């Protein structure tokens, strides 16, 4: 029986050392987690907003009717005239 109490006391000393707070250990703590979570939410919101704005962008340029009319003659000669306006 003394062997069992020795192992029990050894187990208790290991549990006590795990429960002790090490004063030299530095952790980010709750404030670090809160700052990280706020930054993650801000990035998520910015990405969502960027996707919404990029969805509104029309990548196809509408043809200019005046350029088409004058461009037909210029295409045959190979010259390009600068646009006015």
Secondary structure layout plus pairing:
Elements: H1 2-19, H2 29-56, H3 65-77
Question: What tags apply to this protein structure?
Answer:
single chain; 85 residues; mainly alpha; 3 helices; rod-shaped; membrane
Note down, in words, how this protein is organized.
Keywords: Membrane, Transmembrane, Transmembrane helix. There is one protein chain. By secondary structure, the protein is an all-alpha fold. 69% of the residues lie in helices and 0% in strands. It has three helices and no strands. The longest helix has 28 residues, at 29-56. It is rod-shaped and about 100 Å long. The N and C termini lie far apart (102 Å). The model has no long low-confidence stretch (mean pLDDT 77).
> Low-confidence stretches at least 5 residues in length (pLDDT < 50)?
none
Give me the secondary-structure category: mainly alpha
Mean pLDDT: 77
Largest sheet: none
- Overall radius of gyration: 36 Å
SSE order, one letter for each helix or strand: HHH
What is the count of β-strands? 0
Distance between the termini: 102 Å
Region (Disordered): 58-85
Transmembrane segments: 29-47
Biased composition (Basic and acidic residues): 58-78
Keywords: Membrane, Transmembrane, Transmembrane helix
């Amino acid at each position: 029986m003394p062997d069992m109490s020795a192992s029990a006391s050894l187990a208790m000393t290991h549990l006590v050392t795990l429960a002790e707070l090490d004063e030299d250990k530095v952790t980010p703590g709750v404030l670090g987690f809160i700052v990280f979570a706020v930054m993650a939410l801000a990035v998520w919101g910015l990405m969502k907003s960027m996707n919404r704005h990029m969805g509104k962008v029309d990548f196809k340029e509408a043809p200019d009717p005046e350029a088409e009319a004058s461009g037909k003659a210029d295409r045959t000669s190979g010259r390009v005239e600068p646009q006015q306006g």
